[in-house]
Amino acid sequence: MNECPHVDALPHPEPAPLSETCLECLAVGSHPVQLRLCLVCGHVGCCDSSPYRHATAHFKDSGHAVMRTFEPGESWRWCFVDALLV
After folding, report:
1. How far is Cα 86 from Cα 51, in angstroms, rounded to an integer?
2. Distance between the two ends of the chain, CA-based, in angstroms?
């Protein structure tokens, strides 16, 4: 995996999840396909395969660059700014 400068700026330890699912999906009656955890603030949003793409919307609204999968058994991270697995 490649490194990006945004990883060094992440809080340690990583933030606790603010929810167990995508609350924005629940609010509009949608079902999230896969969940993503913002590694800056702990926001949980749905992936881009979900109809509303709440994790990407969170990045666009907040500027929080790095998220990780919030799915059991997975551990990869993604930087929206650099478009890299980190």
Report:
1. 25
2. 6
What is the set of domains in the chain, with CATH numbers?
5-85 (3.30.40.10)
**64 in Cβ contact with 58 (< 8 Å):** yes
User: What's the chain's length in residues?
Assistant: 86
DSSP-H helix ranges across the chain:
5-8, 23-28, 54-62
Query: Per residue in 34-76, pLDDT tens?
Result: 999 999 999 999 999 999 999 999 999 999 999 999 999 999 9
Cα–Cα distances in angstroms (integers) from residue 49 to residues 3, 45, 46, 83, 84, in the given order: 25, 11, 8, 16, 18
